[in-house]
Amino acid sequence: MFGRDSEIFIYDVETDSVIQVTDHPAGDTHPAWNSDGSKIAFRSQRDYYNADTLRYRSDLYSLNADGTNLQRLTKTGNATIPRWHPENSFIAYEWNIRGNKAFLINLDSKEIFEVESDLEYEASPQWSISGTHLMLFGRQNEGSPTEIQLFNFENNQLLFAERINKNPFLKKGRNFNWHYIANN
To answer: Could you identify which of 66, 94, 118, 151 might form a hypothetical disulfide with 134, taking C-beta atoms 3.0 to 4.6 angstroms apart as the criterion?
Structure first.
């Protein structure tokens, strides 16, 4: 629930126990685990909670799986849907305002980079299981068909690799896992 007191909880299937890792009256949503399960990135409105004109803004945060070490990752007010790189050094995320854009955060240097694509509506950036590719789902303008753009991730740089727009299954690109196998 965006704009409400949403919290993040962890359910331990082995002990049948639940722990609450966030506790703030703003909305804490879209949790994403890092690859070793030690950290969670999430979207929150906590720094805009009391601001009347900014109350619908959100940024990305991370914390340890036990709820300690809260860190603010972005300060743009429009960050959402974080996705950890498998090596935990980058987070890809969506930026929502007047069209969607995709960005990367280098967690070591704290630098933020826009993903350069020709899509006007970039959504749901997702890493391949190996971390060698980043996928963006979107369209070039409001009237164009949906497509997927793949980027190679080499030396901490994204390079355009492939455009997929003729697939009949390209209806929705959110929340699925994928594995990239290059054609030889």
So the answer is: 151
Q: What is the 3-state secondary structure (H, E, C) of the chain?
A: CCCCCCCCEEEECCCCEEEECCCCCCCEEEEEECCCCCEEEEEECHHHCCCCCCCCCEEEEEEECCCCCCEECCCCCEEEEEEECCCCCEEEEEEECCCEEEEEEECCCCCEEECCCCCCEEEEEEECCCCCEEEEEEECCCCCCCEEEEEEEECCEEEEEEEECCCCCCCCCCCCCCCCCCCC
pLDDT tens-digit map of 159-182: 888 887 766 555 554 445 555 555
What pLDDT is stored for residue 168 in this prediction? 57
